[in-house]
Amino acid sequence: MDALASQRRLGEAADRGAAHLAPDCGGLDFYALDRGLRALLPLYLRDQDFRLLEPHFERLGVIAGGRLDELARIADKHPPVLRPRDRYGRDEDWIDYHGAYREMETIAFGDFQFHAMSHRAGTLGFDRPLPSVAKYALQYLFVQAEFGLMCPISVTDTSIHLIRKFADQELRDYLLPKMLSSDVATMWKGTQFMTERAGGSDVGALETVARYEDGEWRLYGDKWFCSHADADVALLLARTEGAPAGTKGLALFALPRRLMDGRRNAYRIVRLKDKLGTRSMASGEILLQGAVAYLVGDINVGLKQMMEQVNLSRLSHGVRAAAMMRRCLNEAMASARNRIAFGRTIIEYPLLRRQLLKLALPVEQSLSMFLFTAHAMDLANAGDADAELRLRILTPLLKFRACRDNIPVATSAMEVRGGNGYIEEWINPRLIRDAHIGVLWEGTSNINALDIITRAVGKSRAHHALGTTLEQLLDAATAIPTGFRNRLHDRLRAALAFAERVAADAALEADARQAASALYHATSAVLMLWEASRPDCDARRALLARLLLEHRLSAQDPLAPASGNWEGEAAELIFAERKVALAEVTGMIEA
Ligand SMILES: Cc1cc2nc3c(=O)[nH]c(=O)nc-3n(C[C@H](O)[C@H](O)[C@H](O)COP(=O)(O)OP(=O)(O)OC[C@H]3O[C@@H](n4cnc5c(N)ncnc54)[C@H](O)[C@@H]3O)c2cc1C
Known about the structure:
Layout: H1 2-18, H2 35-44, H3 47-65, H4 67-77, E1 81-83, E2 94-96, H5 99-112, H6 132-143, H7 150-166, H8 169-179, E3 190-193, E4 209-213, E5 216-227, E6 233-240, E7 250-256, E8 267-272, E9 283-295, H9 302-338, E10 340-341, E11 344-345, H10 350-381, H11 385-417, H12 428-435, H13 445-459, H14 462-476, H15 482-504, H16 512-533, H17 540-551, H18 565-574, H19 582-590
Parallel strand pairs: 3-6, 4-6
Antiparallel strand pairs: 1-2, 4-5, 5-9, 6-7, 7-9, 8-9, 10-11
Helix pairs in contact: 2-10, 3-4, 3-6, 4-5, 6-9, 6-10, 7-8, 7-9, 9-10, 9-11, 10-11, 10-16, 10-18, 11-12, 11-13, 11-14, 11-16, 13-15, 13-16, 14-15, 14-16, 15-16, 16-17, 17-18, 17-19
Bound molecules: flavin-adenine dinucleotide.
Flavin-adenine dinucleotide binds near residues 194, 275 and 447.
């Protein structure tokens, strides 16, 4: 009896101890929690579409905070395993996944059909393909729970796009019904293999060769980074025999995992990478040993065609960074509102509120940026040439800056949770590990910054289309005091002029990242101000726009206090758990 009573006492003490720790966001509804997303979606979706789609956002919000979150934790701790041979010693390589990963696949490919929603009617009860805004908003909710699987989901979606657009009729008829299926057991998923040891950024250096033998193309080479290594169809670049060196000689191929007669194609997954993050998903090395592949589109413009997939992936990466940052902020808020130190909840301390403000700013920027970019894609798909130019520059802008911001945001969220944030039982370590891949996939920060400045600004002149639209939004934001709008007008023009100057002068190449960041900050500041001015939207976004103006677009004296009184008041309003009216913030942005 004594032993039992003492065990019970110890148990009660442990329970009391647990109450000291702030909860995490597991079990919460990620859509209901997201005031920013709920406020902005109606600005970018038609009323009727929003009404039809909102139940799906709500449903995914609950799944993401609930079952998906549980599965993601398990899958992260049970990474995939490569089985190189079968028991007869045949090179029938395959990858074993944990049941948790398979269940996540069913949610993604079977229930929500992420891979098909842009390409055919009938997903989520829609009578046509979903608008891009809706697709990326759903990706954003999903990734707040699971990041790794979004790679296979997105790359299947983007592979379908390339095959629909560039493949000949026979290949389309062969591949698309399998790839667009929602039968998770039999569907064909896609991927994209470009990088080799000779080059990731420098794609023109790749060494894989395509030979035309006995009436079909066969590939020989070694692909060094292959995410979703066991996909059913991989799109890849190879140099056809006799083609010129560099990017000009690259053609685009579709590599099936199985041949038409069901046999395994002649390539091997040599090993899986032991990765810092994205552990639920398999990235491997692939040895091409005369594998049969189908030529996709024009043999002379392989890279140009492939860049469509790269750009779609870049947009999705920006969305994924926005999602992971949102999860970081939600986790930080859960800590800040519940953890007690020195007798007060830690959110009451000015220094911690300032830390939260710095954390929230890139989160909300990336939300505004991805919705605006996805909307430009919807307009471009409907034939709007200016929107196509905007999309051209916004895509790498979002990818470059949001992925970069994700890293300090993840670290800061860990710090707000304190020591538990460093412990693998909590989500923060995974958020930190996963954040880092964003600056590598689909081009590093330098490569994306060069794309923005050298090509989107220098060659396509896409900044003009962006600038014109942003000026129109500023002009339309009449509910905002004129003085503040003028200041932002001025900074926007300066950012555009800076980007143009760097693009025009090769000697300024080292300034490309600074110029790209300035464009991102100016764009997001204008968007947030415009959003705040919309009836029934979220007035707090005007305060975020002012923070950007003061801290990212204007010079600061490093020896003067950075936080004026207005910033303390702004933090109170930004973190208030109630709706904030525009009248409450206008005084603060007039100053
Ligand atoms: C886990 C993981 C999974 C991946 N999955 C895939 C996949 O499925 N398919 C695929 O094709 N690839 C994949 N990659 C490869 C990834 O896209 C490349 O690693 C990335 O593009 C960088 O290429 P690299 O590694 O060759 O680095 P490098 O190109 O050698 O770059 C090294 C450094 O040089 C810098 N640099 C290069 N050129 C310039 C320049 N002109 N100016 C300034 N700086 C420059 C880069 O910014 C970088 O900092 C994956 C990578 C990882 C880590």
